[in-house]
């Protein structure tokens, strides 16, 4: 399986990551990535003062060392209605990931959590459902997968979630359930490193093993797509 796209990475601008954008890109090139997405957290995450960086993405070249750079944001869901902590109409982002984080959202019932995640997808730049795999945020996977397929979104298989002592609980078991349902429905998935330091960029080892174990169809795995197809899927990106 040739996974050559990573669209979930963080820089020092996220407030709790350890590498610069340039350092991340050096590793991306070394690992053979052809498409690299930078997706720092928006301002509800502790340690971030403003969303100013997302308004200056024009400063970043579209290609660096022959790697296509796509500029995104990991928007934090802040309430049960799905409000997020960035006005996507006012920022120059190619895509957005929406995610539930304990620092920004208090978990509620399976139904309410799912409502919040679905509500966060109202803007057309939202393309990725980030790490829907945490026991602490129960979700209705049948309903969520229906929504992802209907809206032609990407469901993330987060490599960091699968690490021993990783940031989320019960991820492997939850992803097994979600991928089984998604496989039957033709749900598109995207592997994200969720790198918070440069050496983790493009690290898909655990996620790739899980996808192979689940025999997930390769054509539904976004990381195997070519650059042209990925660009065509990002509705907010200038073609």
Folded structure, characterized:
By secondary structure, the protein is α/β, with parallel strands linked by helices. Helix content is 26%, strand content 16%. The chain contains six helices and eight strands. The chain has helices at residues 21-30, 110-119, 141-151, 171-185, 205-213, 227-233; strands at residues 5-6, 35-41, 63-64, 67-76, 95-99, 126-129, 154-158, 189-192. Strand 6, helix 3 and strand 7 form a beta-alpha-beta unit. Helix 3 packs across helix 4 (171-185). The chain is globular, with a radius of gyration of 16 Å.
Radius of gyration from the CA trace? 16 Å
Number of H- or I-type helical stretches:
6
The biggest beta sheet is recorded as: 8 strands, mixed
Distance between the termini: 28 Å
Query: Which series of helices and strands comes N to C?
Result: EHEEEEHEHEHEHH
- Helicity, as a percent range: 25-40%
> Can you count the beta strands?
8
DSSP strand content: 15-25%
Q: Which stretches are poorly predicted, pLDDT < 50 over at least 5 residues?
A: none
Mean pLDDT: 96
Shape, principal axes of CA atoms: globular
């Amino acid at each position: 399986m040739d996974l050559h796209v990573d669209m979930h990475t963080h820089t020092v601008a996220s407030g709790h990551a350890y590498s610069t954008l340039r350092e991340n890109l050096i590793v991306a090139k070394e690992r053979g990535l052809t498409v690299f997405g930078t997706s720092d957290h928006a301002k509800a995450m502790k340690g971030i003062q403003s969303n100013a960086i997302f308004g200056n993405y024009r400063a970043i070249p579209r290609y660096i060392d022959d790697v296509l750079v796509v500029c995104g944001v990991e928007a934090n869901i802040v309430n049960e209605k799905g409000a997020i902590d960035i006005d996507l109409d006012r920022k120059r982002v190619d895509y957005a990931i929406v995610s539930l984080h304990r620092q920004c959202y208090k978990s509620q019932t399976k139904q309410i959590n799912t409502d919040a995640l679905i509500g966060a997808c109202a803007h057309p730049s939202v393309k990725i459902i980030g790490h829907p795999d945490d026991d602490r945020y129960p979700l209705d996977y049948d309903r969520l997968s229906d929504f992802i397929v209907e809206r032609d979104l990407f469901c993330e298989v987060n490599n960091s979630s699968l690490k021993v002592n990783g940031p989320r609980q019960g991820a492997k078991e939850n992803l097994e359930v979600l991928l089984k349902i998604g496989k039957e429905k033709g749900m598109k998935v995207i592997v994200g490193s969720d790198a918070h330091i440069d050496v983790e960029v493009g690290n898909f080892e655990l996620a790739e093993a899980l996808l192979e174990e689940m025999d997930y169809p390769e054509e539904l795995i976004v990381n195997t797509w070519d650059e042209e197809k990925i660009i065509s899927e990002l509705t907010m990106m200038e073609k």
